[in-house]
Amino acid sequence: MTKAFGKLAAVEARLFLREPMAVFFALVLPVGLLLALGTTIPGFREADPSLGGQRLVDAPFTAMMVLLSIVTLGLSVLPAGLVLYRERGVLRRLSTTPVRPSALLSAQLLINVVVAVVATTLTLVLGHLVIGVPLPGSPWAFAGVFVLGTLTLLAIGLLLSAVAPSSRVVQGVGAALMFPLLFLAGMWLPRPLMPEVLRRISDFTPTGAFGQGLMDTLGGHTPQPLHLAVLAGWALIAGLAAARLFRWQ
Questions:
Q1: What is the DSSP string of the chain?
Q2: Which of 23, 66, 142, 182 is the most exposed place for a label (fewest CB within 10 A)?
Q3: What is the pLDDT of residue 2?
Q4: Higher model confidence: residue 215 or residue 4?
């Protein structure tokens, strides 16, 4: 079974790499935006008192680029792939073979986690080498927030794939959710500059809690317990709901 799962994961990896849009939005776009804006816009490289003396390109913008990659995987790539498999009867056919449909689900999750790790590593390393973005000041805390936030967004993606009737619907719903969630995370208006009411709303969204956790740990600070609790709550609720509602055919 382990050997079969390895082959299945390898096939899923090759299929992912054959999807240029998925590779672009999950891997290329976040790194490209960080390097392009960080090298061409002077304001991104100037210390900002409203951000605690940090440059915008440091923790705030780098955190958003990490988040962009994982949101793309969780709300677009993962659910669209699973719903398409269900539409084409792939999951139903797998149920008649020694490789159970759950193995395909596990392989999909594994590939998305690996892509998230690769995208985050590229963002941090290239950002550090090219424009001097500091590496995480609290690396273990950053890793913990990264794992928890990634699992949360993938769980939400599984829930979307569980309830969406078609791949077209899940793509539309994922896109409709992505932009307000990125806004609440601070993608276009950094959280420190948000009005108090909007920032409090952001605290209880998965992307707001995840984004702030990434910013805190990138800056060498301890993540706030509230944001960790919010992420854990979203992961638990979405994961349980996805397990209950997921349809193989």
A1: -HHHHHHHHHHHHHHHHT-HHHHIIIIIHHHHHHHHHHHH-GGGGSB-GGGTT-BTTTHHHHHHHHHHHHHHIIIIIHHHHHHHHHHTTHHHHHTTSSS-HHHHHHHHHHHHHHHHHHHHHHHHHHHHHHH-PPPPSSHHHHHHHHHHHHHHHHHHHHHHHHH-SSHHHHHHHHHHHHHHHHHHHTSSS-GGGS-HHHHHHHHTSHHHHHHHHHHHHHTTPPPPHHHHHHHHHHHHHHHHHHHHH----
A2: 23
A3: 72
A4: 215
